[in-house]
């Protein structure tokens, strides 16, 4: 990659210039409380560097997956407030993204100050598949930077998204690679160019179809794929088992069946859970029991049971695979770790990663949040990446739009 770096931009001089920075402030919330501020802390150094150099910084970011219109629960208010608490420079939040509030606050911005624009996904054009629609939104973002602006992409977690604030703005402004993206890419590049085997990939979480898609290219690259979290139920269904009310993407069953068929020839083996923690409802205080993975509907909760974690037998089997690995990449919690009763699988995997001598990488907003919430320290892992889907797609060898657009 031969992108221009933030240091080059700073050396060119940024005092008084409007610099548009894409950050990943997609943090987990409990109401209006940020439950893990890892991504905010990871975003701060670039903002500080630009602020110290006298730039007028406009930050774009998304939170969650709103449907293209403003929704209070997806507001960046809590994230902006936490950033302001941690920062030693002035941070404000606009009430909109490219509307009157953003324009007025941007115009009044002083050197060294930071203005966060409200969730870019409150505008449907941000994620549109139509180039012209995304382009018109990018034009409005770029217009906020006046006639001497520049763009810095520091949102590693979103580099796999061909979205207006990630991709299209970079085609309209002089564009630079932020330090966070740079560091993340360096670690992952090392992992891909010098992979020590056995290479074990642990997959979980709730973005089932996103994560299933990456398995295609991991076949043949990973020696073993451990399947937990929400996607495990699509694997069980693909093997002909009933999964009651658990998370299931039925249209993905043929995809999984195809993976299972190709795995042996590709030299990759899947480890699918043999037991599951099934709950009466999706709640912290739900009744729950451990059942065999092929008998989920036979739990006391029948067809309404929901699988919310891998069982202890599966957690031990996964831990044994991790113990024998030389490289481990983990994305996606094994269960609904936010509820104590369903955090056992995620805790066991985190523990196994801290016990192994393998080089370990944990990727993803919720995965990073999980290990911290469960009491582990960042220093117990080889690298904690701010991007889950992004790091998975990088490891697959896929072209990432947010990176390739910076390539010159
Ligand atoms: N069995 C399950 N059913 C429903 N949700 C699950 C299950 N297992 C894990 N999850 C949820 O997955 C979420 C994280 O998914 P995801 O966003 O894909 O991970 P990451 O941010 O690490 O990439 C967590 O909030 C967790 O509660
Ligand atoms: O949380 C994120 O990704 P991750 O859950 O894969 O780590 C990023 O902020 C990207 O969000 P998106 O998957 O809604 O585009």
Automatic annotation (TrEMBL):
<keyword id="KW-0808">Transferase</keyword>
<keyword id="KW-0067">ATP-binding</keyword>
<dbReference type="GO" id="GO:0006094">
    <property type="term" value="P:gluconeogenesis"/>
</dbReference>
<feature type="binding site">
    <location>
        <position position="121"/>
    </location>
    <ligand>
        <name>(2R)-3-phosphoglycerate</name>
    </ligand>
</feature>
<feature type="binding site">
    <location>
        <position position="39"/>
    </location>
    <ligand>
        <name>substrate</name>
    </ligand>
</feature>
<feature type="binding site">
    <location>
        <position position="307"/>
    </location>
    <ligand>
        <name>ATP</name>
    </ligand>
</feature>
<dbReference type="InterPro" id="IPR015824">
    <property type="entry name" value="Phosphoglycerate_kinase_N"/>
</dbReference>
<dbReference type="Pfam" id="PF00162">
    <property type="entry name" value="PGK"/>
</dbReference>
<protein>
    <recommendedName>
        <fullName>Phosphoglycerate kinase</fullName>
        <ecNumber>2.7.2.3</ecNumber>
    </recommendedName>
</protein>
<comment type="similarity">
    <text>Belongs to the phosphoglycerate kinase family.</text>
</comment>
<feature type="binding site">
    <location>
        <begin position="24"/>
        <end position="26"/>
    </location>
    <ligand>
        <name>substrate</name>
    </ligand>
</feature>
<feature type="binding site">
    <location>
        <position position="161"/>
    </location>
    <ligand>
        <name>substrate</name>
    </ligand>
</feature>
<dbReference type="GO" id="GO:0005829">
    <property type="term" value="C:cytosol"/>
</dbReference>
<dbReference type="GO" id="GO:0005524">
    <property type="term" value="F:ATP binding"/>
</dbReference>
<comment type="subunit">
    <text>Monomer.</text>
</comment>
<feature type="binding site">
    <location>
        <position position="211"/>
    </location>
    <ligand>
        <name>ATP</name>
    </ligand>
</feature>
<feature type="binding site">
    <location>
        <begin position="364"/>
        <end position="367"/>
    </location>
    <ligand>
        <name>ATP</name>
    </ligand>
</feature>
<feature type="binding site">
    <location>
        <begin position="62"/>
        <end position="65"/>
    </location>
    <ligand>
        <name>substrate</name>
    </ligand>
</feature>
<feature type="binding site">
    <location>
        <position position="121"/>
    </location>
    <ligand>
        <name>substrate</name>
    </ligand>
</feature>
<keyword id="KW-0963">Cytoplasm</keyword>
<comment type="pathway">
    <text>Carbohydrate degradation; glycolysis; pyruvate from D-glyceraldehyde 3-phosphate: step 2/5.</text>
</comment>
<feature type="binding site">
    <location>
        <position position="161"/>
    </location>
    <ligand>
        <name>(2R)-3-phosphoglycerate</name>
    </ligand>
</feature>
<dbReference type="GO" id="GO:0043531">
    <property type="term" value="F:ADP binding"/>
</dbReference>
<dbReference type="InterPro" id="IPR036043">
    <property type="entry name" value="Phosphoglycerate_kinase_sf"/>
</dbReference>
<feature type="binding site">
    <location>
        <position position="39"/>
    </location>
    <ligand>
        <name>(2R)-3-phosphoglycerate</name>
    </ligand>
</feature>
<keyword id="KW-0324">Glycolysis</keyword>
<keyword id="KW-0547">Nucleotide-binding</keyword>
<keyword id="KW-0418">Kinase</keyword>
<dbReference type="GO" id="GO:0004618">
    <property type="term" value="F:phosphoglycerate kinase activity"/>
</dbReference>
<feature type="binding site">
    <location>
        <position position="338"/>
    </location>
    <ligand>
        <name>ATP</name>
    </ligand>
</feature>
<dbReference type="GO" id="GO:0006096">
    <property type="term" value="P:glycolytic process"/>
</dbReference>
<dbReference type="InterPro" id="IPR001576">
    <property type="entry name" value="Phosphoglycerate_kinase"/>
</dbReference>
